[in-house]
Structures are given as structure tokens and as C-alpha cells.
Amino acid sequence: MPHIAIHLSGKPDPALTRKTVQSVARLTQDVLGKEEAVIAITVQYVPHDLWFIGGRSLAELGRNAFHLDISVTDETNTKAEKARFIGAVYGAFEEMLGELHECSYVHVIDARAAAYGYGGATQEYRHQRAGV
User: Fold this and answer.
1) How far is it, in rounded angstroms, from Cα 75 to Cα 125?
2) pTM above 0.90?
3) Which DSSP string do the residues of 50-119 spell out, in sequence order?
4) Cis-peptide into 2, omega within 30 deg
5) Distance between CA 114 and CA 36 in Å, rounded?
6) To pair with 54 at 20 to 30 A between CA atoms, which of 17, 35, 60, 121?
């Protein structure tokens, strides 16, 4: 845990993909306290002419954008931690992409422990099994 889905504007770029994954994984560990071994990240690219903000494409606007969804187990992070994560992720992408449109979103999804898991077991099951 967690699962992270990232959409980046532009053409696929292996170097940017690697840098993105490393940066987001580091922030997920440092700010949200998640374990590296269970951080799963997918990255997809969307061409500038297919990404629209305010009815205009990023190609028209001459800007870049990203969207990041991260699913974490509910009640495992505070509001302050999530706010720091959102700010740090935005800053990291601003540095990596440049010309970043403000309408680049980070969505921290608080998933209920009984409805979220990996390896065939829910987070609730893991929590109870650990006796915490």
C-alpha cells in the first residue's frame, strides 16, 4: 500500500518516468510514512492536444499538467500530512515539468480498511491480525 496512478502531459519519456516514480515514492515514504516495498505506481502520458483545462488544450495554453491519485488506508495519515504531501508533490512536478498549469491535481483517497487491500487480504484483516 499505497497505489499511485499518475497522468503526465506530453509524450512518453523514460527518463522523466523514472524521475517521477523515484520522486513520488520518496515523498510517499518521507511525508506519508509508507513502506517502499508496498508502493505501487503506474504512469501514463496524455498528449498536450488531448488534455483540456477550461476548454483549451495544454497545447494551446503552452503549459504542462499532471494528475496524481494515491489510495491510502483511511485514518493512517493526518490532514496536515496529506496537505504537506499535496504541496510537496505539486512542487516536485513543477520542478520536473516546468510551465505547470495550476489545475494539476493531487487526490489523496482515504480508502476504508475493510474495502482496500493487496495480496488477497484487506488492510482491516492485516490490522486485526497484527493485534494493534
Assistant:
1) 15
2) yes
3) G-EETTEEHHHHT-B-EEEEEEEETTSS-HHHHHHHHHHHHHHHHHHHSSB-S--EEEEEEE-GGG-EET
4) yes
5) 22
6) 17
Render pLDDT for 54-103 as a digit per residue (tens, 0 to 9).
999 999 999 999 999 999 999 999 999 999 999 999 999 999 999 999 99
Please report the pLDDT score of residue 127 as a whole number. Answer: 85
Asked whether the beta carbons of 51 and 101 are under 8 A apart, the reply is no
Instruction: State how far Cα 33 lies from the chain centre.
Output: 14
Distance CA 2, CA 40 (A): 6
| Residues with Cβ within 8 Å of residue 24, at least 6 apart in sequence | 4, 6, 41, 68, 89, 92
Q: By C-alpha distance, which of 30, 35, 32, 18 is closest to 96?
A: 18
Q: Which of 98, 96, 97, 76 has its CA nearest to residue 31? A: 76
C-alpha cell of residue 70: 494515491
Convert the pLDDT of each residue in 14-45 to its tens digit.
999 999 999 999 999 999 999 999 999 999 99
Q: Identify which of 32, 78, 3, 121 has the alpha carbon closest to the alpha carbon of residue 130.
A: 121
